[in-house]
Amino acid sequence: MATIGQPYTCGIWTVRDGNEEEFVKRWTALVESAGEGGRSFILIEGREDPHRFLSFGAWEDWATADGWRATEAFGERMQACRELCEDFRPNDSTLRIAVGV
Question: pLDDT tens for residues 50-63?
Answer without folding.
Answer: 999 999 999 999 99
